[in-house]
Design a protein that fits this description.
201 residues, alpha+beta, 2 domains, five-stranded antiparallel β-sheet, 5 strands, binds zinc ion
């Protein structure tokens, strides 16, 4: 077996988790020199439905459009015409260490790599993504941890950020609801709030 075939299995799993969290259009942005590398789930209109498309997101038909390739359900990359070693390396780095790469992207751009929103809240700016994206993508968000460490001398803004983070961490009651016989109705689902990476004042 060629181990390289499953190089991106982690990346694929991450997207599967986001889908399980009812994220309808999971997408990540990676920065490479002046280029943006975007990985997104192919939708039902694509012949590659369920696979991950890697482009610069310029849009199909745009002269600037770059197609780096796609990652299939086994975590193998099928190279596209614009794939370079650097882009492949960046994808590998993210697959191996999403937390660190997300943090670097956040610091570099000031935006969350998952939802593209500005990281206004200091905790999210430090972590590199907001509490909701952390939950949707199964990544740690350190606000609650930081608040616990400073509980003896609480700061209002740290506590507020921690409360938001903890509420988000604890709000998924799907399993509990299922155990109590509630039906998961689409209208009950909380829509993905794209403004959530900014902690409200
Ligand atoms: Zn986000």
């Amino acid at each position: 077996m060629n181990v390289n075939v499953n190089r991106f299995a982690n990346l694929y799993s991450l997207f599967q988790f986001a889908v399980s969290q009812k994220l309808k259009y999971p997408k990540i942005r990676l920065q490479f020199a002046q280029d943006t590398v975007v990985v997104k789930l192919a939708g039902s209109k694509s012949r590659y439905e369920g696979e991950l498309m890697v482009t610069n997101d310029a849009g199909y038909g745009s002269p600037d459009n770059k197609y780096f390739g796609r990652i299939d359900k086994n975590g193998a990359i099928i190279a596209g015409r614009d794939l370079t070693q650097a882009v492949e390396g960046l994808l590998e780095e993210f697959a191996a260490n999403p937390v660190e790469v997300a943090q670097r992207y956040g610091k570099l751009t000031g935006n969350c790599m998952f939802c593209d929103k500005k990281l206004d809240d200091p905790t999210s700016a430090a972590v590199g993504y907001g509490p909701v994206c952390a939950k949707k993508w199964n990544l740690p968000h350190s606000a609650a941890k930081q608040a616990r460490a400073s509980r003896k001398a609480p700061k209002a803004e740290v506590d507020a950020a921690a409360q938001v983070a903890e509420a988000n961490l604890n709000h998924d009651d799907t399993l509990e609801r299922a155990e109590h016989g509630y039906i998961d109705r689409p209208e009950d689902r909380v829509p993905f709030d794209s403004s959530i990476c900014i902690t409200p004042e």
